[in-house]
Design a protein that fits this description.
2 domains, elongated, 15 helices, mainly alpha, 249 residues
């Protein structure tokens, strides 16, 4: 039995008791610490569908529980579970809650939002594309980052899906806003392009080459992606050529 399966069995024993469930999640959060208990969050998403409780947990903000506070793992788990629950319910309220959490000040909660959307994509990629196609048009930098990171998920990426990712990326590059949250978006951009390109090297390298030299910040982002092993080791010649070209700009 895997760790996730063991956790599912334990969760089933307390699933109908909100207080015991909360205590268990907090105690097993692995926080404070460098890595939260992702296996627990995924296990909970398999068995828990109480949208009222999950929504209540998302209201625990950074003032009540900072990023290393064990209680912050409750909204983390909510984001993952709500993504899984959306597959079943198609409740638009869930999307609104995930969008709100994408703006959270805690980096770990923003990561959980990506996990939540990835759960949707794993089961219904068309639905995820529909959500993101509408959202990208009226999104801030934190929300753009959520979209990009959610899509950088090997389980939903193939050559065709990557074309959608590059369409989103084109929108981001063409409408890039350098406001206070730009660094959050930039950090997401510094690795997601390499993930999309690994899924469709021919198109990805063409996209990268097209953008080299157009903007200093974009050049920095491109350099970071070209240095990733997923490109540099698997496609050393092309990645090396483009990296050299970007360094000359």
């Amino acid at each position: 039995m895997s760790k996730k399966e063991e956790l599912i069995q334990k969760l089933k024993l307390i699933i109908d008791d909100p207080e015991k469930l909360e205590r268990f999640i907090i105690e097993k959060s692995n926080l404070p610490g460098p890595r939260a208990n992702l296996e627990l969050a995924l296990a909970l998403s398999e068995v828990y569908e109480n949208i009222d409780v999950l929504t209540k947990w998302t209201e625990i903000d950074a003032d009540q529980a900072d990023v290393n506070d064990p209680r912050s793992f409750l909204p983390f788990c909510s984001a993952v579970s709500l993504g899984k629950l959306y597959i079943k319910t198609k409740d638009k309220k869930i999307v609104r809650v995930l969008k709100k959490l994408a703006n959270d000040d805690r980096w770990r909660i923003r990561e959980a939002v990506a996990f939540g959307f990835q759960r949707i994509g794993e089961h219904n990629l068309s639905e995820l594309k529909s959500i993101f196609s509408k959202w990208i048009e009226k999104s801030n930098n934190r929300e753009k980052r959520a979209i990009l990171v959610s899509l950088a998920h090997p389980e939903i990426l193939d050559r065709n899906t990557s074309l959608f990712c590059f369409k989103i990326l084109e929108n981001v590059f063409e409408n890039m806003e350098r406001d206070d949250d730009f660094e959050i978006l930039k950090k997401g951009l510094e690795f997601t392009i390499s993930v999309y390109t690994a899924a469709n090297p021919e198109y990805g390298f063409s996209f990268i080459e097209k953008w080299i030299g157009k903007d200093e910040v974009i050049d920095e982002i491109i350099k970071s992606n070209l240095k990733k092993n997923r490109l540099l080791k698997k496609h050393p010649k092309k990645a090396g050529e483009l990296l050299k070209m970007s360094l000359n700009n």
